[in-house]
């Protein structure tokens, strides 16, 4: 059944986040041959419309307004509701990002519809669209179908492969004028932490340190390995609580959920709350002195040893490649 599907393009620092392209790919599956419409909301974002088309959107609708310069759920929901009123889609896909997690339940409630959140896979099976999503902190997966009405889902970053970029594709990028009113929140200032390279939630390679790194300086060898592999550095809560690193690096149940291609856990015991944030990584390597550490139960490759010896050796070897 061909459907009209809206896909939100997420913009950060003037560029589309990769999850936007993954959402377009998911939107194509939901559309089943129908139309995929990219939506951009913000200030001066229309130039990004063509890129959404090159990644598979059929057309793009842009809502630009000074009050959309910074994300607020009030502002974005007004913008999105205007597009939804105009287009009357049968499907909506967002990334399961901080923004998507905040905005999607608000819109679902406004639309009196259900929401499949944090989908890691989507396929057509037996005449149904079947979404897979992790439950119980990633210990099990459930399959969900929408039996009636709007299909509204958020997708976990790094799980659904984007379509190949096709620079020859073209399509309409049109503006929709929306009067953004009555914002209950106004962002006065955004204070950013100094970014250390690759964004953790979209990184293909993560080198994570736990209490085993023993100090702030203990993260240095991990940073060097991350640099060589073009990856990001993450951490367990143990390392954050010990003040070895910032909480923005925390991975787990109360931190970020990540699914990189390669996750190297260094000096992390593998508590269930940590596994909740990384156990769906494609390849997991664990380095730990304790052969009984629980992290080895989820690891594809385990190295029993001192991380301060093993990590520099890995860095040297990868440098040769
Ligand atoms: P530890 O458990 O102390 O493990 C350190 C490991 O390092 C050990 O296995 C040790 O053998 C190894 N080691 C030591 N030295 C070396 C060395 N030189 N070389 C190699 N290995 C070495 N935790 C999270 O990570 N993320 C969360 O989101 C999270 N949320 C939580 C929510 C709640 C409600 C609760 C109660 C807990 C949460 N935790 C979370 C905490 C979690 O239970 C663990 O306490 C924490 O993950 C332990 O961190 P760790 O593995 O770094 O430390």
UniProtKB/TrEMBL annotation:
Top-level taxon in the UniProt lineage: Bacteria
Named cofactor requirement(s): FAD
Keywords annotated in UniProt: Electron transport, FAD, Flavoprotein, Transport
Single GO BP term: fatty acid beta-oxidation using acyl-CoA dehydrogenase
Chain ranges of the Electron transfer flavoprotein alpha/beta-subunit N-terminal domain: 5-190
CDD domains: ETF_alpha (cd01715)
Cofactor binding summary note: Binds 1 FAD per dimer.
Residues annotated for FAD binding in this entry: 211, 236-237, 250-254, 267-274, 288
Family annotation (InterPro entries): DHS-like_NAD/FAD-binding_dom, ETF_a/b_N, ETF_a/FixB, ETF_alpha_N, ETF_asu_C, ETF_asu_C_CS, Rossmann-like_a/b/a_fold
Keyword Electron transport applies: yes
A Pfam family per the record: ETF
Signal peptide: none
Any GO MF annotation of the entry: electron transfer activity
Family note: Belongs to the ETF alpha-subunit/FixB family.
Protein name: Electron transfer flavoprotein subunit alpha
């Amino acid at each position: 059944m061909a459907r009209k599907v809206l896909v939100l393009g997420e913009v950060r620092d003037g560029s589309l986040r990769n999850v936007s392209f993954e959402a377009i790919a998911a939107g194509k599956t939901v559309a089943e041959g129908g139309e995929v419409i990219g939506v951009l909301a913000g200030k001066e974002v229309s130039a990004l419309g063509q890129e959404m088309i090159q990644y598979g959107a059929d057309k793009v609708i842009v809502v630009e307004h000074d009050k959309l310069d910074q994300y607020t759920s009030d502002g974005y929901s007004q913008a999105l509701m205007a597009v939804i009123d105009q287009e009357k889609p049968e499907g909506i896909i967002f990334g399961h990002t901080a923004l998507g997690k905040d905005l999607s339940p608000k819109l679902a409630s406004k639309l009196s519809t259900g929401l499949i959140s944090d989908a890691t896979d989507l396929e057509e099976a037996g005449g149904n669209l079947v979404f897979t999503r992790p439950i119980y902190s990633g210990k099990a997966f459930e399959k969900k179908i929408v039996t009636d009405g709007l299909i509204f889902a958020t997708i976990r970053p790094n799980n659904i492969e984007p379509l190949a970029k096709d620079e020859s594709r073209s399509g309409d990028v049109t503006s929709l004028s929306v009067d953004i009113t009555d914002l209950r929140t106004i962002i006065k200032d955004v204070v950013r932490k100094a970014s250390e390279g690759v964004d953790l939630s979209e990184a293909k390679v993560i080198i994570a340190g736990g209490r085993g790194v023993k100090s702030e300086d203990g993260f240095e060898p991990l940073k060097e390995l991350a640099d060589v592999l073009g990856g990001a550095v993450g951490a367990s809560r143990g390392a954050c609580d010990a003040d070895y690193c910032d909480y923005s690096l925390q991975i787990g149940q109360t931190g970020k959920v990540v699914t990189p291609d390669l996750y190297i856990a260094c000096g992390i015991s593998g508590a269930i709350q940590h596994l909740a944030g990384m156990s769906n990584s494609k390849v997991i390597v664990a380095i730990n002195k304790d052969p009984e550490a629980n992290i080895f139960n989820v690891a594809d490759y385990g190295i029993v040893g001192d991380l301060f010896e093993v990590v520099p050796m890995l860095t040297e070897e990868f440098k040769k490649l």
